[in-house]
Specification:
The chain is mainly beta. It is built from two helices and 59 strands.
């Protein structure tokens, strides 16, 4: 009896759950998005096409200030083009695609005068010309600073956001009631340090300029910055910081000389925007949001909760669960999904597509390269090993042996925990395109056997990858799941599944309701339908595929693909990947559901109960008891004893049972006094019997 079920049976003693079922979205993992960023009046604002967030405690917590896309959206989500904050004023400019070829966009403008607590919104369409703005507004500026009450603002005219303002630097001496342009060169950012103005100008030879006379004259100031361009600038009380595609530079002499910051902890040096609140420096880039409190020497990544990552892989190991985000690296949760942390230090590729855990070593692979990453500290740090291939689709283990499925190079194998790898393709067709055997998608394992999903069909090895045999007529089949002698293989074209219960000797076709992916955990089988269908559904079978029930529940309607799955503690976890074009992030992430709920649902959703009069005598007992029941139909059965923690303490029987009365003796003399349960599982049905040992 597998532990997956053993932890579940307690719910069978209580009320049966509703047919709807309940999935709960865990608190992550978060996507490492690229953001627009602005700081004003002690608040930090982040925004992209998912929405605008605000933090009032230097990034420790976040609230949604402007939500964009929702599950009910019928058009593409809003995109954010500009975000500007100064004092209590915050302004956001964005656009929304509406699909009309003659008027394809609508434009939105949000303005807040209370640091983002409330917003005024305007909506307007594009009529072929610029809408001239009111000069008393901040609208159209990309950044604003002040010196002795005089305001200075910059705009480069990028996007629709400047709405009638000419590019350049503007000045206001009457608290933004009126503005006049003082420099006509496009400027993407402006800040000040003391009485010195510092701006990013789009000049052909230089980027950073300083002004000592209120913007009347400007001199270049980028000596020491070794970068092709400068993307952002920010000022603290004593230093200037600039972001570049190769990292961060700083100056302590108002920009006369610049030095390279250490950047320790930054996952990617392609810095796009900087902001400062008090002594905290914030940086956004292609790998999300980072914070430094020591002047850009060391950095920590912040999860601002704009959206959850689209999860491709999930694996439980010990008391830890790992998940991979699409282009977001590896995340870890130590508390069954309540909190997630990015564990990416040393990962040079963040599009992780496969995970494996062997002998306390975590392995990660990327489809974008032939690199296999190894971690001995639960993903906190990573080392890399190179394979001679284009990319790696999946990784699995068979005992202590690792197998990697590659693009166009077949199977690679390692017997020393990933330190060395060698090809293992004896018997595999050497076709090098996606229809060939050397294009390996993934694996399935059972006992000492391994199956490979390839472009040329399903291959099987009984000698730990020493040689492979093709399963005939599986060229159009894509996905395989194996439990003992039961094999299920599904197609990628016409939606049907074949199953063998005798290790591949005979096959039958299942009415599998368009199921596409299968995942065995013990003898419990999870499945989901073809993700290219309009709606997805998730299924569960507790009899190795003979019967399925739908367990989609409250996940229905997100247009997502669910799976793979794994179990940890009382939960089954599901990786959710968005495939909808209308709602490109709602619902994705890691979801969980009590396993007991699913098993109880499976029990009441099957055919008639095939057990009668399950009992034990004596009960309570001190040493021996006799367990009896009547089977009303024949079939495969498992009978076990579990303790109050859900751990199996004895296996009474595994095998076929005929239609008759059955009795099994149980010797509990080696067990401590307490409460136990007898669990009988047969033909997709589950019965439990509480028993007590007294001495």
């Amino acid at each position: 009896m597998n532990r997956f079920f053993v932890l579940l049976f307690f719910a069978l003693l209580s009320a049966v759950p509703s047919a709807e079922g309940q999935w709960e979205q865990t608190n992550g993992p978060y996507a490492s998005d690229t953001y627009l960023m602005a700081a004003g009046n002690g608040s930090l604002f982040l925004g992209n096409w998912y929405g605008v967030l605000r933090s009032t405690d230097e990034g420790n917590s976040w609230q949604t200030s402007i939500p964009f896309a929702t599950q009910d959206e019928t058009i593409n989500p809003t995109s954010l083009d500009q975000l500007c904050a100064f004092g209590q004023f915050v302004e956001v400019f964005g656009s929304e695609q509406i699909g009309d070829p003659h008027n394809p966009y609508e434009y939105f403008f949000w303005q807040s005068s209370d640091s983002g607590s409330t917003w005024n919104t305007q909506e307007f369409g594009y009529d072929g010309g610029w809408n001239v703005i009111n000069d008393t507004s901040f609208r159209g500026f990309q950044s604003i600073t002040s010196i002795s009450g005089v305001l200075y603002a910059a705009t480069s005219g990028i996007g629709w956001g400047f709405q009638g303002r000419s590019s350049g630097i503007y000045k206001s001496t009457d608290s933004a009631k009126s503005w006049r342009i003082i420099l006509s060169t496009p400027a993407s950012s402006i800040t000040s340090l003391g009485t010195v103005l510092v701006a990013l100008l789009q000049d052909t030879n230089h980027t950073i300029f300083r002004s000592f006379d209120g913007g009347q004259s400007w001199i270049p100031s980028d000596s020491g910055i070794i970068a092709s361009s400068v993307t952002s600038i920010a000022a603290s009380d004593s230093a200037l910081f600039v972001g570049t595609p190769v990292g961060i530079f700083y100056s302590t002499d108002t920009g006369v000389t610049w030095f390279r910051a250490q950047d320790f902890g930054l996952a990617n040096l392609n810095i796009q925007q900087l902001a400062i609140i008090n002594t905290s420096l914030f940086a956004t880039g292609t790998r999300g949001l980072f914070k430094s409190v020591d002047g850009a020497k060391t950095w920590v990544q912040i999860n601002p909760s704009v959206r959850f990552s689209s999860v491709g892989s999930i694996i439980a190991a010990g008391n830890v669960i790992f998940a991979t985000g699409a282009n977001d690296g590896v995340f870890v949760s130590f508390d069954t999904g309540n909190h997630w942390l990015p564990h990416n230090f040393g990962l040079s590729q963040w599009n992780i597509t496969g995970l494996a855990f062997v002998n306390n070593m975590l392995f990660a692979t990327s489809r974008d390269s032939g690199i296999i990453f190894r971690s001995g500290d639960s993903g906190a740090t990573w080392q890399r090993e190179m394979l001679n291939c284009y990319g790696i689709n999946g990784i699995t283990s068979l005992g202590d042996t690792l197998f990697a499925g590659t693009e166009y190079s077949g199977v690679f194998m390692s017997t020393n925990l990933g330190l060395n790898w060698s090809p293992s393709n004896n018997g595999i067709d050497s076709g090098y395109d996606r229809s060939g055997g050397f294009y390996v998608y993934d694996f399935a394992t059972s006992g000492s056997n391994i199956w490979a999903e390839t472009g040329g069909g399903i291959y099987y090895s009984s000698d730990e990858g020493g040689s492979w045999s093709n399963i005939p007529n599986t060229e159009e089949f894509s996905h395989v799941a194996v439990l003992d002698s039961t094999i299920l293989i599904s197609t990628e074209g016409p939606d049907y599944t074949i199953r063998s219960t005798d290790n591949g000797t005979h096959w039958t076709t299942l009415d599998s309701m368009g199921m596409f992916y299968f995942h065995f955990f013990g003898s419990d089988l999870f499945a989901e339908n073809n993700p290219f269908d309009k709606d997805f559904y998730t299924f569960l079978s507790i009899d190795s595929g003979s019967h399925f029930i739908e367990i989609t529940g409250n996940l229905y309607g997100y247009g997502n693909m669910v799976g793979p799955f794994d179990t940890l503690g009382p939960y089954v976890f599901a990786a959710v990947t968005t495939v909808s074009n209308l709602v490109p992030y709602i619902g994705q992430g890691v979801w969980r559901r009590p396993i007991s709920n699913l098993i109880a649902l499976a029990k009441v959703s099957g055919s008639d109960i095939n057990l009668e009069r399950l009992s034990s005598f004596p009960n309570p007992f001190s040493t021996y008891t006799q367990i009896s029941f009547t089977a009303t139909e024949s079939g495969y059965a498992e009978i076990s004893i579990v303790n109050s923690l859900g751990a199996e303490v004895a296996s009474l029987y595994t095998g076929e049972l005929s239609v008759e009365n059955h009795s099994f003796a149980f010797d509990g003399s080696d067990l401590a006094p307490g409460n136990y349960w007898c669990v009988v599982r047969m033909n997709g049905h589950v019965e439990t019997l509480p028993m007590t040992i007294l001495r």
